[in-house]
Amino acid sequence: MRKKSDKQYILNRETLDYDVVEQPSLIKRSLKAVLLYAFSSVSVFLLSLFLLTDVFHLKTPKRLLVERESKEWHSKLDIMQRRLESADMALQDMERRDNSLYRSVFGMEKIPEDIRNAGYGGVDRYADIRERDYTGELTASVMLSDILMKKAYVQSKSFDQVALISERAAEMALCAPTIPPVNYAHVRQASGFGTRVDPILKNRYGRHLGVDLAPKSGRDGEPIYVTGNGVVKYVGYDAGGYGRYILVDHGFGYQTRYAHLSKALVVKGQEVKRGQQIAEMGNTGRSTGTHLHYEVIYMKRHVNPVNYYNKDILPEDYAAIIDSSNEKPMS
Q1: Quick one: DSSP state of residue 99?
Q2: Position 60 pLDDT exceeds 50
């Protein structure tokens, strides 16, 4: 080991003599040692960190904390997404019942799917969220939440409309075609609703859109009564089909047609009351004998009239309805 008093020499190639090597001060030597120690410590730390994280796949405390917080937020997003999906299913069931039951009962048009399934077009309103949402979970939840909010608003407005119409339920009961168009004691059903053999062409099948009621007497002139309150929408003559006929609009999605008449007793635009006589049975148009062709049209679709009136109604009850229509005639 070299003593502090020892000197070091170096050959000077120019003078061919030995020069004394100047020794660094104690401070410089100490600083150099500290820097060397610090560099070595940092190197060892970085090497250890590399080995622990990349080779042995061990995680730092900070990374463990971040991952734990990330899992907590993902768990919260999963819960929110499931709740939104559950709300969406409940809302879809509500929409189905609204269209098929509530609105249908009151003769209201169904709300189209493109209106119910609310979407957003044009500018991407979720661009800012997507830039920060690497998994897409947050974007999906926000989009579903916005859609549900708009669908719930549409459904709420629909319920407001249904509630308003339901206040007229008593009026609807009088407008629906709920009585036979003729006195059933005087007629027989000649043809029902649905597919049948064409009575004129014989060898062809066709869809019969109403029911045919023929008089037991076989004569023209059997009284025809309107089956619900309404307004006469049309009185016309169709030589190749209905013959002389009347179309009545009852509101609430209902219309009725009375065809092959010998005489019409009302005019277009006239208000009529259930049980009021509006025509006489005949044999006009495309017909093979005296009868009434009666149709019920609900929400622009032909439906079976027998499902709307009681054909077993007692004659005295039917007569009471007819008499009540004459108490306060409508014009």
Answers
A1: I
A2: yes
Is pTM beyond 0.85 here?
Answer: no
Is there a domain that residue 292 lies in?
Answer: yes
What is the pLDDT, as a whole number, of residue 331?
Answer: 30
Cα gap 95→89, rounded to integer Å: 10
Shared-domain flag, residues 136 and 50 = no
**Nearest Cα residue to 250 out of 267, 265, 275, 233:** 233
Q: DSSP letters along 265-293, please?
A: ---TT-EE-TT-EEEEEB--SS-SSSBEE
Average pLDDT over residues 124-129: 76
Decide if 331 is inside a domain.
no
Mean of pLDDT values over 285-308:
90
**Are both 214 and 308 inside the same structural domain?**
yes
273 shares its domain with 187? yes
Which domain covers residue 29, as residue numbers? 8-55
Q: Which residue has the tokens 């119910």?
A: 116
Q: d(Cα 182, Cα 223) in Å, to the nearest integer?
A: 7
Q: Is residue 76 part of a domain?
A: no
Instruction: Verify that 267 and 317 share a domain, yes or no.
Output: yes
Interval 220-241: pLDDT, tens:
999 999 999 999 999 999 988 8
- Based on the fold, state whether residues 317 and 289 are members of the same structural domain: yes
Q: What residue ranges in the chain does DSSP mark as E strands?
A: 8-12, 17-21, 187-191, 194-197, 205-208, 211-215, 223-225, 230-238, 243-251, 254-259, 261-264, 271-272, 277-281, 292-298, 301-303
Q: Mean per-residue pLDDT for 26-47?
A: 78
Q: What does pLDDT average to over the chain?
A: 81
Final residue belonging to a domain, choices 167, 196, 221: 167
Q: What percent of the chain has pLDDT over 70?
A: 82
Decide: helix, strand or coil at residue 257.
Answer: strand
What's the structural domain count of the chain? 3
Q: Are residues 201 and 308 in the same domain?
A: yes
How confident is the model at residue 116, as a pLDDT? 79
DSSP strands (E only) in 60-208: 187-191, 194-197, 205-208
Say if residue 188 is in the same domain as residue 314.
Answer: yes
